[in-house]
Write a structure and sequence with these properties.
Elements (H helix, E strand, L loop, with lengths): L8 H16 L3 H26 L5 H11 L2 H9 L4 H4 L3 H5 L5 H29 L4 H18 L3 H24 L3 H18 L4 H15 L2 H11 L3 H5 L3 H31 L6
């Protein structure tokens, strides 16, 4: 009899929970380094997708193309390694099962969140000084400013709900990748949910660790700022909103939304369905 090329949903949940136990018990140094690596990979997905779409006026087409490129970030994490804050929200299933303490989960999430930020900022700096934002007569720099301003302007309610939707798709992508037994299956399992999240324009806190600081850096460049004002009608007041304090209006509610989506909607439901009635 031919062996199945994928695991059942119940098997996937158990595999993820075993992996989450390992994540929660990682030595601090390794946790930090893996978190930095994941932040870099997500940022590279954001940078290359921005480059691809910055001169496309049709929003649907631009998002479809960006969504086809952005999944490379999660693929690199799954295949090479990395600790991603949004995916690690699934550790909650181990907390429900009493395999991991709440304190250990919160330690992992805090360390990984900050490490993801370090990795994303490192790529921000490299991209800025690489000259990448000069593409199309500085239009990419202007587009980068526009994207960052748009994210900072999102209302708290929209940021939370969009964050929930985003991490439902990200966590499902991680579980689907675990369902596949071969690398080709894992690639496609990751690709479609992440493609959907980008097309939907949903908010991902780690991706925003690239987009918003990148916009801050671009806004400090006179050529990029002038191009943003010329092409997109960006005002001096909007440029001034690109600062650390105002960025928290995005990061805080988006992070909350991502945690709710990953922990309650995906983690909570999967645990209740597949583990809740027969914990060992």
């Amino acid at each position: 009899m031919m062996e199945n090329s994928f695991y059942t949903p119940a098997e996937v949940v158990e595999l993820n929970m075993k992996g989450s136990e390992n994540k929660a018990n990682l030595p601090l140094r390794k946790m930090i380094l893996l978190g930095i690596m994941a932040g870099m990979f997500i940022a590279l997905g954001g940078a290359t997708s921005n480059t691809a779409v910055h001169n496309i006026e049709n929003v649907g087409l631009a998002r479809a193309l960006a969504g086809a490129i952005f999944p490379v970030g999660l693929m690199m994490i799954v295949f090479v390694g990395g600790e991603l804050f949004t995916g690690n929200c699934l550790i909650i299933m181990d907390v429900f099962a009493k395999r991991v303490s709440l304190a250990k989960m919160l330690r992992n999430l805090a360390v990984v969140y900050l490490s993801n930020l370090v990795g994303a900022l490192f790529v921000d700096i490299l991209i800025f000084y690489s000259g990448n934002l000069k593409y199309t007569d500085c239009l990419l720099g202007a587009y980068t400013i526009k994207v960052a301003i748009g994210k900072i302007a999102v209302t708290p309610v929209s940021a939370i709900t969009s964050g929930i939707l985003c991490n439902v798709l990200v966590c499902i992508a991680i579980l689907m990748a675990a369902a596949a037994k071969d690398i080709v299956g894992k690639i496609w399992a990751i690709f479609f949910p992440i493609w959907a999240f980008v097309i939907g324009g949903f908010e991902h806190c780690v991706a925003n660790m690239f987009y918003i600081p990148m916009g801050m850096l671009a806004a400090k460049n006179a050529d990029y700022a002038a191009k943003a004002q010329e092409v997109y009608g960006i005002t001096a007041e909007q440029l001034a909103s690109l600062n650390i304090i105002d960025s928290l209006a995005n990061f805080i509610p988006v992070t909350i939304g991502n945690m709710l989506g990953g922990m309650l909607v995906v983690g909570g439901l999967c645990f209740k369905i597949y583990k809740g009635s027969h914990q060992k």
